[in-house]
Amino acid sequence: MRLLPAMLPHGEGRIVMTSSVMGLISTPGRGAYAASKYALEAWSDALRMELRHTGIKVSLIEPGPIRTRFTDNVNQTQRDKPVENPGHRRTFHPRS
């Protein structure tokens, strides 16, 4: 991280990270995505505490659902991939 050493001598500033509401909740089939957002949640929280006496603030933006093709694309990708484990298939695709 090159930005932080440049900010420290000034004793002020704000680091803004963008995550997702999935950093607070998870849903079936989105575990890996949610895990990456939980990681950002933890990292920004730790960084905020580590910098509390420096004048540098840390903010995390966690927007909720936004209408884009992202979900459609993810869902299509998942449909294109066969599920190799029959137990796993029944869990997520009960009719197959």
From TrEMBL:
In the Enzyme Commission scheme, what number(s) does this protein have? Answer: 1.1.1.100
The superkingdom listed in its UniProt entry is Bacteria
Q: Specify where the region named Disordered lies, as residue ranges.
A: 69-96
**GO MF annotation terms:** 3-oxoacyl-[acyl-carrier-protein] reductase (NADPH) activity
Q: Where is the composition biased (Basic and acidic residues)?
A: 78-87
Q: Which organism is it from?
A: Salmonella enterica I
Keywords recorded for this protein, A-Z: Oxidoreductase
**GO terms, biological process:** steroid metabolic process
What is the gene name? Answer: fabG_4
Query: Is Oxidoreductase found in the keyword set?
Result: yes
Supply the enzyme class, top level.
Answer: oxidoreductase
Protein name listed in UniProt: NAD(P)-dependent oxidoreductase EC-YbbO
- The portions of this protein that span the membrane are none
